[in-house]
Amino acid sequence: MPDAISEPATAPLTPTHRPQPGRSPYVRLLSTPGALAFTLGNLLARLPMGMFSVSAVIMIAGARGSYALAGAVTATGMAATAVVAPWTARLVDRYGQARTAVPATAVAVCGSLALLLCVHYGAPDWTLFAAYAATATTPNTGGMSRARWAHLLKGDPAALHTANSFEQAVDELCFMLGPVLAAFLCGSLFPEAGTLIGAVLLITGVLVFAAQRATEPPTHGRTATKSPLRARGMPVLLASFLATGAVFGSMEVVTLAFADEGGHKAAAGAVLALQAAGSGVAGLVYGAVRPAGPAARRHPWCVAAMTVLLALPLLAALTGSLLVVAGALLVAGMATAPTMVTGMTLVQARTPEGQLNEGMTLAVTGLLGGIACGAAAGGSAVERLGPTAGYAVPAAASACALVLALIGYVRSDVRDRT
After folding, report:
1. Is the pTM here over 0.90, yes or no?
2. In 89, 182, 263, 346, which residue has its Cα 20 to 30 A from 363's Cα atom?
């Protein structure tokens, strides 16, 4: 059995371990015993999440000459992940992060390598779908990291808010750098390089992360508690994550089309990276301040801010300038991280004890489903109305998220009063 799933040499840390005073909330956060080690491992494991789909598209389209096939394969993988990921997370809650994440990652890496070999040696198209579907067992490494923070910082909501903000900034960093790194590797080395190096980073990061047994949350075994889907307040919250995912998916497709129409297709990646950069910086700033009021009250305000700011790209597109749109996306992205941080805080609060990984994975699954729906809606709008009008799709999706957030808040307020 690998060292990563052996028994810890030292007694596990308890939630009473608190970060000591430091120069900033993030210094205090990472001074928590064992935090830096599992954070670095998780960073290695999370970076490939932004690499795999781009690498697969470049690899398949280059070898088979069909972007339609490449898109269909990656969409199949996303659909498989939406089905499998919650079950993987349930096993993580039941048997522990190390005992579940390592073999699940091994299966996913085998799927990535199988895809690489099938593409390289010209295997039938159906094998590409089967191989990429196998990568759906990839564990939600971001969720596992958040679960560790929730365990270590139990009873300290201010520190947990900083931790959630930090994790959101890491998400943005990985999804900003991942596609750029994948495109560079596939273009400068060989078409399969992005998939190959992504697989190596994933298994290495998960092994390093899983080896940090002292910070791993305790398991709860089998539980008779109802599914997180049935927990109070969760259905409408997950629906808001679905709408938020539609914002991301539609924004990416519409921006690519807008850049392509203006003859600046090569700059589209950098423009989208600005949105992620704005979100990452805002997340770090948001995590450094102590939020006022409960998360249930803050959530509609954050979504409202996101809805207002998402009108900026639509207005900027009317100028026809990609540079103006880039600036608008940078500003619009600044409301994304606070919305996600507050939403994840609510997921943690509403998920039944012992099912935290499953609850957070359901939120991520909602985002993935929304991204797929948003991409389809954005593409349809671009074809029918043009890229400029297409920016109305993410604005409308954000408005839907706001309505759902308000419904969730009103329901929770009514329950609190009764």
Report:
1. no
2. 182
